[in-house]
TrEMBL record:
Residue ranges that the Swiss-Prot or TrEMBL entry lists as coiled coil: none
InterPro entries according to UniProt: Ig-like_dom, Ig-like_dom_sf, Ig-like_fold, Ig_sub, Ig_sub2, IgSF_CEA-related
Designated name of the protein: Ig-like domain-containing protein
Classification via PROSITE patterns: IG_LIKE
Source organism of the structure: Biomphalaria glabrata
Boundaries of every Ig-like domain copy: 19-111, 133-207
Record PANTHER family: CARCINOEMBRYONIC ANTIGEN-RELATED CELL ADHESION MOLECULE 5-RELATED, CARCINOEMBRYONIC ANTIGEN-RELATED CELL ADHESION MOLECULE 8
Protein keywords: Disulfide bond, Glycoprotein, Immunoglobulin domain, Signal
Length: 211
């Protein structure tokens, strides 16, 4: 089982701890196939081995090539791979290899990706003229985001309740059933990804007129 914990708030370091899962090989590996990380945070990824009197040789790979250590990305004395800090340029597939007298063992690869929230909305709300009783749709397609961004709608610069039977979301679009005069106002949508920095993007505003 994989557990993730922050062991230093000051350094904002994330450490992945891998418990022992058996005695079938020298290598202990139970990481997921992919992880999303906050860019700028510090990250430590271990290459765990079974207890042994013989100290194994550990080699880290990125995209199936031996990883070249830098002052920012390097192997610790406990054979863990450290990123101080993790950057988007580090995105890729990583694996570790362990060798000793018992043989040579290579872990499955793990894909690391830095979270991000792009700048441009793929679709934004437009000024709309409607009549009383019309059904109105205001469009919003948030920017590319990893992980997916949450979308919140605002009316007249306050969060909009979209859980009523008359006003609700269709995907990320805002749907107003049977427009009323009280629906007139300024609308916009906000994309939020708390894993990225910046974490918020705001669409253009749209004026809804009801006659």
């Amino acid at each position: 089982m994989l557990s993730v914990s922050v062991f230093s708030k000051e350094a904002n370091v994330t450490y992945i701890d891998i418990p022992s899962v058996g005695n079938t090989s020298v290598l202990d590996w139970s990481l997921p196939s992919s992880l999303i990380l906050k860019e700028g945070s510090s990250f430590i990824m271990p290459c765990m081995t079974k207890p042994s009197k013989e100290i194994p040789i550990v080699t880290w790979y990125r995209e199936n090539s031996i990883l070249n250590a830098t002052s920012r990305v390097y192997v610790l004395t406990n054979r863990s791979l450290a990123f101080f800090p993790y950057l988007a340029s580090d995105n890729g597939n990583y694996s570790c290899a362990v060798s000793n007298s018992a043989g040579f063992f290579v872990s499955p690869s793990i894909s690391l990706t830095a979270a991000y929230l792009s700048l441009a909305f793929r679709k934004q709300p437009l000024d709309t003229n409607s009549f009383l009783g019309d059904n109105v749709t205001l469009s919003c397609d948030p920017p590319d985001s990893v992980p997916a961004a949450e979308v919140i709608w605002y009316k007249d610069y306050s969060p909009l309740n979209v859980t009523s039977n008359r006003i609700r979301l269709l995907g990320h679009d805002l749907y107003l059933y049977s427009a009323k005069l009280i629906d007139r106002g300024i609308y916009y949508c906000v994309a939020i990804n708390n894993w990225s920095s910046p974490s918020i993007r705001t669409s253009a505003t749209a004026q809804l007129t009801v006659k």
